[in-house]
Amino acid sequence: MYLLILLLPLLGALFAGFFGRFLGHKGAGIISLLCVILSMLLSLLAFYEVGLMGLNCYLRISPWIEVGVLKISWSLLFDSLTVTMLVVITVISSLVHLYSIRYMQYDPHLPRFMAFLEIFTFFMLILVTADNLVQMFVGWEGVGLASYLLINFWFTRLAANQSAIKALVVNRIGDFGLSLGILTTFYIFQSVDYYTIFSLTPLVSDYSLNFGGYTVSGITLIGVFLFIGAIGKSAQLGLHTWLPDAMEGPTPVSALIHAATMVTAGVFLLIRFSPLLEFSSIVLNILIIFGSLTAFFAAMSGVFQNDLKRVIAYSTCSQLGYMIFSCGISCYNVSMFHLANHAFFKALLFLSAGSVIHALANEQDMRRMGSTIKFLPVTYSLMLIGSFALAGFPFLTGFYSKDFILELTQITLNNNLYNIQGSFACWLGNLSVFFTAFYSFRLIYLTFINSTNATKNIILKSHEPSLYMLLPLILLGLGSIFVGYLTKDLFIGLGTDFWNSAILILPNHSYFIEAEWLNITIKWLPFVLSSLGIVLATFTNVRQTYIYLYNKIYRFGCFLINKKWYWDILYNRFFVYPILNFGYLVSFKNLDRGFIELLGPYGLTKLIPTWAYIFSKLQSGQLSHYLFFFVLGVCLFIVIIIGNILFYNLQLIFFYFVLIFFI
Amino acid sequence: MLNLEFLNPLILTSLTPLVGLLILFVIPATKESFCRLVALNTACITFLFSLILWIQFDSHTSLFQFSATFDWFPSANLYYTLGIDGISMFFILLTTLLTIICILVSWSSVKFLIKEYLICFLLLEFFLIQVFSVLDLLWFYIFFESVLIPMFLIVGIWGSRERKIRAAYQFFLYTLVGSLLMLIALLTIYFQVGSTDLQILWHYNFTEIKQIIFWLAFFSSFAVKIPMIPFHIWLPEAHAEAPTAGSVILAGILLKMGGYGFLRFSIPLFPEACIYFTPLIFTLSIIAILYASLTTLRQVDLKKIIAYSSVSHMGFVTIGIFSLNLHGIEGSILLMLSHGLVSSALFLCIGILYDRHKTRILKYYSGLMQVMPLFGIFFLFFTFANLGFPGTSSFIGELLVLIGAFQLNRILTFFASIGMILGAAYSIWLFNRISFGTLKTQYFSFFQDISRREFWILLPLTLLILWMGIYPISFLSEMHFSVLSLIEQLF
Predict the structure, then answer these.
(1) Per residue in A599-610, pLDDT tens?
(2) Could you tell me which residues come within 8 angstroms of residue B234 by beta carbon, excluding any fewer than 6 positions away?
(3) Which structural domain, as residue segments, surrounds residue B320?
(4) pLDDT tens, position by position, A236-251
(5) The pTM is what?
(6) For B391-414, how does the pLDDT look when each residue is reduced to its tens digit (9 = 90+)?
(7) Domain named NADH:quinone oxidoreductase/Mrp antiporter transmembrane: which ranges (chain B) (predicted)?
(8) Do A568 and A505 fall into the same domain?
(9) Does residue A539 sit in the same domain as residue A592?
(10) Do A62 and B169 touch (CB under 8 A)?
(11) Is B428 in Cβ contact with A168 (below 8 Å)?
């Protein structure tokens, strides 16, 4: 059963991919949907067995690499962390499958699309079920491949090509970090199996190694490298630039890959490595700083984006920041809880956005939408639920996790556990709540409520999507309302034993009891801030206040943020172009085609004729010249003989003299 | 009484190409298809024999197996000794496999002097099998050099452009100059030890200064073959001008001769010099990885892109070999095998494009996924294999090499890993430019997906790469003992 969870998507991918021609659109769709739904049912069963009953499962399939002490096997590990991810992945994946059968209905390459989605699901499942780092790396790269192919699904478009390459290469920088993490892990632990690493971590926590002349704590080094991996995959500040661009892909892809599952792989990695990260306070602090900065910057960027999907993409980026910094304050289970909740409402937001785009003839610019509330009431209400959940409106899914994260950061601010990083996260996290609410409702207003800017043709043709597309939306909407409420006590309830050994929180890092006794006014703060954001969004949109447009500072800020803080331009100008120019001018033209070639074969071919010419000129045919050489030779001969008697080394000096003469 | 020594599968493997060669000689050149059939069958039989080598191979010993000795000049203590161990066996298998593929690939693309062409390939196969199985320094040198002759002819005669003469010349010059130094060292060794038999030399201890000098002489020969920067510039030229099959065999096997030479001769014969020169090798390898990757990013000739990426991959191989531990060396052997498959496959893909459109300039190609979907799938797979995608063979090789290097030097590994990023950048850039984007119909208007023959050439390579990536133990377990005994020589 456990193996089938993985194999079914692979089977579906092979069928839909290689036999899609014979199966046709319907056949490919049904087969792939069937596979992933079966996989979902089995995952739910696994969740019941492993998560609720606490029966961890370990499957060893076959050995993989065995060289010396390096022993890696293909094996699957199912513990409570894994099965939670399994449920999230397979549920979202099956809903997205169902949605995209109809969404991509008129695309001639539907089977290929389904195959790619299945491939993605398969690799994502490998990623979460791996029991060692290297096998996880297979899934890690595999989802990168699937992401590349899916962003590039409409591959004739230049923009899609560019974003796909960007996503892959930027992700690869993260993979570089992760692979160094694997190497360091193997160097320190002589193993890459999770359980070996985790059980040995307390013993090597003060082991340090030499890295480029600096003595670094081994655990910290591993943590930093793993975090570089997570930065790449989870689009944290610095390597986040690929995520907004990845929106060039079809919308179901954005929902599945770039919101619900793949981008959370980095967070999953950090949660998985909680037993290791707990022993390095430096890494935890780095997580806090990067996470909260990402949450804040991405939320701010989201405010001034005009592309419907990009707004949601930045929102994803910002929520990932929340997950990362809650790992940083050692609340891995809350982070995981937020990950699961986020998957539901973010998938809902993306899929509803897909419906809107579908209805408005593939228009993505929010400034050219509006009034769709009259034509798409169901989509509107679903989007509203998603936005409320995202903004953390009380008793919706987002509330339970996001509010709790913010409460936990408040503790570090208010109690005697004061530490500067925690308060950093607290401030930025709370501010981001405000921005989150603002951009969510700006999106609602611009898309649904404000008077329309679309053409009459488009508006009149717009209609609610068919039932097949609405069904996943409604299910996700229900999830966005209830999942948080239902699973709160299971995942983050005080004293829950759900996580068993999957997550380790050192007792002196745990703030859960303090969170229960937090001042009630502080507990209200996120709600107040998000309400403020909603009110401000309403105010600016309903009253049509144009006055602020003429404020210079405001406009400059707008400009800066709209251009995504110039990250792309800075990277292009200071990294990409210099590297490309170096590749052409220095390493190719100057070295390969210049220096080495001249010193090598071409130099030789030029030098030899020149020398031959010089030597041939000695044969001038004039007696006086020959006589001169004859006398010169005799003189030198005499000098050598005398010199040999007087000085022992003269022969060598003479040799050099002759050499110089000829050259 | 029948002499059963000839039933030794190693001898059978070595001699079969020669038999095929002799048959080819007597067939009139006008019967082209018959010539092809004979060559193909010879190559297939050779491959079968080499498979017998693998089946009968005993992985629990580090001794040379299937060994046979013949007298050559017993008075001068010169013999002809054959034998293989876990290191050389897979190179022989790779040679025999790629020869079949080379003959298949040029089934219709070579238009003139077909008989001579096939003779060249069978001769090349014979020489290469000898290089990998001979256990005598002098004979190794002879075959190592002889490989040049057919290869020179292949590039010079069946190359595609006028520039091929220059490329062939450059190729010849570089390899010859490199190996002349090796010849001098070889003669010196012979006069000092009195034998060129490898197993005798392994037990002889040279003084350190002599080790260093000999090592440099051998290095000049192997470094040109691998190729290491700054001796690499013949490679892109030769690749760009050679016919497809020539590129395949050049990238697939000829480059591995250098790495094999390091493993077989430099490390066991001159262990102290190896440790002495490790920093030099590491520096050159890092430069090769980074510089070649950066250069690759700006090439427009498809074959040159693959050629430069080969240089960069071979940088990983040399790092692995000279990390001088089990992981590094086994990783580099695996990486060499994997590179033999992956880069050959990429050259085949480019050959397929060249056969159809007669150009190798990247600029003319775009959006081929729409008209050549099967080709696109294969090309995608090989591109990802090239950038070290986990589950393909190159990943295992690179991982083991980096693990080996990390034990020695962290900073080295750090920079080598940057090569992974750049590798992804150029591979995916190449793939994207060829397969995705809009179709440039202003340049080409007729398209054809891969034919059945090409499909069956590419499929085995795909499966092999996957096999090596998913279950590499069947390859690794054969070499454990040989590599361990190799490392034992060092200490």
Answers:
(1) 877 777 788 888
(2) A601, B167, B170, B171, B173, B174, B175, B224, B227
(3) 9-490
(4) 988 888 998 899 889 9
(5) 0.92
(6) 899 999 999 999 999 998 889 999
(7) 136-420
(8) no
(9) no
(10) no
(11) yes
**Alpha-carbon gap: A267 to the closest alpha carbon of chain B (Å):** 21
Q: A523 and A567: one domain? A: no
Average pLDDT over residues A436-459: 86
Average pLDDT, chain A: 87
Inside any domain, residue B323: yes
What are phi and psi for residue A72, nearest 5 degrees? -120, 135
Task: Please give the Cα distance from B377 to B345 (Å, whole number).
Answer: 13
Side chain identity at A44, as an amino acid letter?
Answer: L
Which chain A positions have a beta carbon within 8 Å of B414's beta carbon?
180, 212
Nearest to B472 among A65, A161, A579 (CB): A65
Q: Which of residues 448-487 of B touch A (CB under 8 A)?
A: 470-473, 476-477, 480
Asked whether residue A85 is assigned to any structural domain, the reply reads: no
C-alpha A429/C-alpha A447 separation (Å) is 27
Residues A469 and A542 in one domain: yes
**Both A457 and A536 in a single domain?**
yes
Give phi and psi for A73, each to the nearest 5.
-125, 160
What is the pLDDT confidence band of residue B3, given thresholds at 50, 70 and 90? low
**Rounded-to-10 torsion of CA A297, A303, A305, A309:** 90
C-alpha B152/C-alpha A315 separation (Å) is: 61
CA atoms within 13 A on the CB side of A312: 33
Domain count, chain B: 1
Chain A residues with CB-CB distance to B411 below 8 A = 211-212
A61–B contact, CB cutoff 8 A: no
Give B328 to chain A, closest Cα distance, Å.
10
pLDDT for the residue A219: 92
CB contact under 8 A, A70 and B327: yes
The average pLDDT across B325-348 equals 94
B residues 172-201 closer than 8 Å to A (CB): 173-174
pLDDT, position A650: 59
| Residues 71-110, chain A, touching B (beta carbon < 8 A) | 74
Q: Tokens 């490329």 — which residue?
A: B167
Are A437 and A474 members of one domain? yes
Domain assignment of residue A610, given as a range: 563-619
Yes or no, beta carbons of B421 and A176 under 8 Å apart: yes
ipTM > 0.85, yes or no: yes
Q: Is residue A160 part of a domain?
A: no
Q: Please give the pLDDT value at position B1.
A: 46
CB of A59 within 8 Å of a chain B CB? The answer is no
Chain A contact set for B421 (CB, 8 A): 169, 172-173, 175-176
Nearest CA of chain B to the CA of A106: how many Å?
17
Residue A184 with chain B: CB contacts under 8 Å: 406
Are A330 and A509 in contact, with CB atoms under 8 Å apart?
yes
The β-bridge partners of B392 are B390
The per-residue pLDDT of chain B, averaged, comes to 90
- Which of B173, B299, B428 has the CB atom closest to A169's CB atom? B428
Handedness of CA A302, A307, A313, A315 (dihedral sign): positive
Domain count, chain A: 3
From CA B402, how far away is CA A137, in angstroms rounded? 15
The Cα A345–Cα A393 span in angstroms is 12
Q: Is residue B257 part of a domain?
A: yes
CB distance from B400 to chain A under 8 Å?
yes
Whether residue A535 sits in one domain with residue A438:
yes
Q: Which residues of A touch B228 (CB under 8 A)?
A: none
Angle at B367 between CA B361 and CA B370, to 5 degrees: 135
Contact A137, A172 (CB under 8 A): no
Any A CB within 8 A of B425 CB: yes
Q: Is residue A21 part of a domain?
A: no
Task: Give the chain A residue nearest B374 (alpha carbons).
Answer: A18
A132 has which bridge partners?
A193
* A450 and A591 both lie in a single domain: no
